[in-house]
Amino acid sequence: MIFLLRRIAFYLFTAWAAITINFFLPRMMKGDPISAYLQKNQGKISPDAIESLTTLFGLDSDRSLWEQYIDYWQLLFSGDLGRSFSRGLAPVTDVIASALPWTVGLVGIATILSFLIGTSIGAYIGWRRGSRADLVVPFATFFSTVPYFWMGLIAIAVFSSALGWFPASHAYGKGTRPGFTPEFIGEVIAHGTLPALTIVVASLGGWILGMRNMMVTVLDEDYVTVAQAKGLKPRRVLVNYAARNAMLPQLSSFALSLGFIVAGTIVMELVFSYPGVGKLLLDATTAKDYPLMQGLFLVITLTVLVANILADIAYAALDPRTRQMEA
């Protein structure tokens, strides 16, 4: 309980700092959303409408910066992240909600698969260190060093253009009506398979190499030697003694990866024209849509914090020494 309370207090302070920075940062940038919106709609906005937009975006000059800060917190607690002027003044929450499931569904599944597969392969290679299994490491590392956009273009050229196995772009076919139907779900899976495979292949090397190196270190520990001396089955020593302890540092990296799932893979979404959060963030930056950028940064930050909280809890559950040190 002491461990949990201290970690929660730390992350609450971090969340407050991140939200505060998220409030002040756009106001420190050159220009403002009202000026950018007026440049796109020259001669189409009346003075009364400009005044209404100024109030809507929380940039009313009659209110001090502190009052705007308080208003910002009140809007956050009410679930209002403002209006996106690049999306027809649609609520930012609705814009993010429309793109979030695509990114979480694709990048999330791909990240979890790459972690599970890479960690399992790395544990086996570390257990069989010095054998032919070590040859997997340079191959996997090579694919991790290849620029992702190049790997994505090669995948499209081979598996889409040449072989015709998978669609080349978008989340589903043109003219298809979204819905929970077998046809639509099949199209989503078909369009998402190729970008998901490229994400898995590109990230496998890091998980394999990290787990393999930790296994080599853990196998020299005394408790592994004692377990082997007791005559325990090699599989039990591998899973319960070696891999369980070697996987602890991997959890922190995995938590960060889970947190940044919401940010999406911008390059992947550009290469495959996938309608995710990464592409939405790039479009918002290009259009200088500050409310949408602010909302996206906030969602990404809070997601990373939640992922780290879950990683700390899992770390403490697997390693009792962490709880004892905090206590």
Automatic annotation (TrEMBL):
Cellular location of this protein?
Answer: Cell membrane; Membrane
What's the protein's topology in the membrane?
Multi-pass membrane protein
Q: Boundaries of each ABC transmembrane type-1 domain copy? A: 100-311
Q: Which Pfam families match?
A: BPD_transp_1 (PF00528)
Please provide the record's keywords in A-Z order: Membrane, Transmembrane, Transmembrane helix, Transport
Show the coiled coil region(s): none
Q: Family assignment?
A: Belongs to the binding-protein-dependent transport system permease family.
Q: What is this protein called?
A: Peptide/nickel transport system permease protein
**Upper lineage ranks?**
Bacteria, Bacillati, Actinomycetota, Actinomycetes, Micrococcales
